[in-house]
Backbone:
């Protein structure tokens, strides 16, 4: 076995722990591995453990940490594939919407005025307004926008929800295909069935569960092996199916996300920072500390799951995984470095520690 891009772990993490097998072959009991360490005065105080899968476009497992077969909910990392039928059917092209709108549909935006306005434009093409959205409401992720709403004593509406772009896209696709709008998030709705059918056909494997779970925004979400999520992003990065045949819809979604990373997430957020800083990467985070990325130049996918679902560990773990596969190169932007090692401050504003990525991949024998 070989290791790529490895750096020295904190000295309190034992070599035997890092090299222990990820899965007991007799019991299939999952063994997670450290993905991020919380440091105080240079010493490990806490450890966030989890799993990583690295897969090529043909579905071959290239490297792992923990159990690459672990069943996970991709949550919002599934969004590019939820947009896939809308684009593959030709409906998105007929809608006349911009690639910025496609990035918003594929993303988890920050709820800024620009994000909300674009979601409103998508809804207008469907002849509805924000009352049609079934995603609910929450405080905008963008802190400046959240503060401005508080100052105006304005409650955030569903357009500010990070998933409003995805939901607006689903509504427009339903309207353009002659399907009902009121129940567009029902797992049995034609739009949702097509999302799941196309993903299953693209990956060439059936879903584990006959009925999907429900995401935080009320849309269906599947449960899939971590390596399947990585495979999906390998295909997204290539804009091709598993046989290498071009899939223009995937390529358009990928290119829209790459061209408009501010619509995929927002200022100061992980996916926007990574796609701005790293050439040839398309990526998408999901709730409960899931992250997936595809490398356009190499056609490989990387999927990360922090076991405890902690958002604070996701940036260090995701950037650490990209470093391990050699995707970052020599020059790393300051913004990306801040994601890789996040500084911790106490309530008095003193810097007291950091959260540092500690991903160590085991590479499969070639």
Residues:
């Amino acid at each position: 076995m070989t290791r790529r891009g490895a750096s020295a772990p904190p000295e309190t993490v034992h070599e035997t722990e890092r090299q222990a097998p990820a899965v007991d072959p007799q019991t299939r009991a999952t063994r997670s591995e450290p993905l991020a360490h919380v440091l105080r005065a240079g010493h490990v105080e806490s450890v966030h453990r989890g799993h990583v899968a690295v897969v090529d476009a043909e579905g071959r497992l290239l490297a792992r940490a923990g159990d690459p077969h672990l069943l996970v909910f991709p949550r919002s990392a599934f969004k590019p594939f939820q947009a896939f039928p809308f684009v593959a059917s030709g409906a998105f092209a007929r809608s006349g919407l911009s690639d910025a709108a496609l990035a918003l549909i594929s993303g988890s935006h920050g709820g800024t005025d620009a994000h909300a306005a674009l979601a409103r434009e998508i809804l207008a093409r469907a002849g509805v307004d924000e009352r049609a959205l079934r995603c609910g409401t929450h405080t905008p992720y963008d802190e400046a926008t959240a503060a401005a709403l508080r100052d105006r004593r304005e409650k955030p509406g569903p357009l500010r929800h990070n998933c409003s772009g995805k939901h607006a896209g689903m509504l427009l696709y339903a309207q353009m295909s002659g399907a009902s709008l009121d129940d567009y998030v029902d797992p049995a709705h034609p739009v949702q069935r097509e999302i799941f059918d196309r993903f299953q056909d693209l990956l060439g494997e059936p879903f584990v569960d006959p009925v999907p779970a429900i995401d935080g925004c009320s849309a269906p979400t599947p449960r899939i092996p971590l390596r399947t999520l990585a495979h999906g992003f390998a295909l997204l990065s290539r804009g091709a199916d598993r046989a290498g045949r071009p899939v223009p819809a995937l390529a358009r979604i990928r290119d829209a996300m790459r061209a408009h990373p501010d619509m995929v997430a927002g200022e100061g957020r992980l996916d926007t920072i990574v796609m701005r800083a790293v050439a040839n990467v398309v990526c998408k985070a999901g709730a409960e500390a899931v992250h997936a990325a595809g490398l356009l130049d190499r056609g490989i996918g990387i999927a990360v799951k922090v076991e405890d679902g902690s958002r604070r560990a996701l940036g260090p773990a995701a950037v650490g995984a990209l470093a391990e596969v050699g995707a970052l190169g020599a020059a790393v932007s300051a913004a990306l470095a801040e994601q890789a090692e996040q500084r911790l401050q106490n309530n008095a504003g003193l810097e007291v520690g950091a959260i540092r990525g500690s991903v160590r991949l085991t590479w499969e024998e070639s």
Summary: Residues 1-28 have pLDDT under 50 and may be disordered.
